[in-house]
Structures are given as C-alpha cells and as structure tokens.
Amino acid sequence: MPEIPEIETVRRHLTEKVQGKIIQKVEIAREKSLNVPGDIFAASITGQQVVSVNRRAKQIIIGLANNHSLVVHFMLEGYARFFYAGEEAAGTPSVTLTFHTGEKLSFFKLTLGYLHLAPTVKLADIPELAGLGPEPLSPEFSLDIFRQRLSERRAMIKPLLMNQEFIAGIGNVYSNETLFCSKIRPERKTTTLTEAEQSKLYHCIRDILALATRLGGVYEEKFAADDILTGGFEPHLKVAYRTGQPCYICRSSIETKRVGGRNAFYCPVCQR
Asked: Which of 83, 99, 107, 253 has the least C-beta neighbours within 10 A?
C-alpha cells in the first residue's frame, strides 16, 4: 500500500500535470469505486476546473471549481496514470477523466480503493479523513507531542506506527525502515522505550519520510511516460523486502516475522 512518500509523489505529479485543467469527459468502468451513482458523479465534475491538489495521510484531495473535491484512496493496489494527448491509454482503468487538452488521468485497480465526491470543506471535516492522527512531517508534530502520544498507548511499536489514528500515513514499508534506523525491534512494547529511543525514533520517522518523499518513494507504477521520479527511494531500503540478504551495517541476514498481523523486516543484531 502506498504511504506518505508515494502519495506525496503522486500529489506533486498531479499538481504539475492536472491542476488548472478542465474535465471534459468522465468514463466509469467500476461504479463501485464511487460513493454516488455514476451519472451523478459524471455530471458533477464534467466541465469543472481542477483548482487544487492536496494530501492528507494516504489520501489525495483534488479540489474542483464548483466547491467539490475528489477524495482518492488507492488502498493496496490502486494507482493513477497520466496520458498525454494522442498517447494510447493502456490497461483497463476504473475511472478516466479526459481534460480539455486531450490529456487523460486514469485511476486503476480501485477494487479496494475509492474515488469519492465530497463537498469542499476543511480537510478535517471531510468524512473520509475523520479520525486520522497527526501528519509526521508537519511542523506541528513535535518530539514532545510524539512522546505524549506514546505515553498514552501500550502496544507493540510496529503496529502502533501503522495505526492511522496514532500517526497518519505510515504503513508497512516505512515502519520497518524507521525502526531499523532507530535500532528498535518491531515487537518492542512502547512502555519499554527509553527517552533516547523515543527521540531517535521520532527523528528517524521524519528524516526517512522526508528523504523518501524527495526521491519519489518506492511506488512501482510510473505516473506518466516521462516520469523519472517515482520509485527513486527503492535502492535506499535497508530492511523492507530484503529477507535473507545481509544487513548493510553488520552483515547479518535480514529476518522476517509476523508482528501485529503484518510482515516485519528487521536485523536481529542491530535492532534490540
């Protein structure tokens, strides 16, 4: 599932390629991905200009000129692809938006994900975004706030980092990477973390997410034919999906175990 760096990369692409353009045509192949009937969805957004593109946690909010927004959640397999005018659109998209320029924005594999139409309000008031925790890269997310939130929980640290009510936007990949960075085992309880470990984890979360975002995350699906940004962080992964390969620090084999129902990748020597 894409996380903050991957979704932020898509947001940056959308801002560059789509913002300011007018939706001329809407094609819907999977109406179940919508929260309103397809004809209402199409009528509501056809002729509307894209005026903004924002991100909250793992969701993208595309603002339209008629004070409505498209809320996009890719979930496990979904992704967006931009096609230039005259470029043949490959695959079978769930929903396709054609702009007045002849360019297209297609949303693929929204089997578990969705493309919802919602009134444009403050992000916190959009129902799909309710109950989310703080953004880990926000200036307001301080070390003191992180420590306070940790003190309110008694849980294993990896599942907690992936809990969207605790912190928004972190999933399996970056929970693994930040725990390796901070040398903490994924099954450690929050109550066992020292102040030094809490501080190290906080800074690892912010540093790794910032670097991964700058490098385009680890998303496999390119946004457009000329996309050279997406997936640039993949060579920098230290433990995620590297089971059996040597640790870059101690050369021990990276191991995998189930923690909180998800695969945890870790170094048995470097992480304690």
From this structure: 253
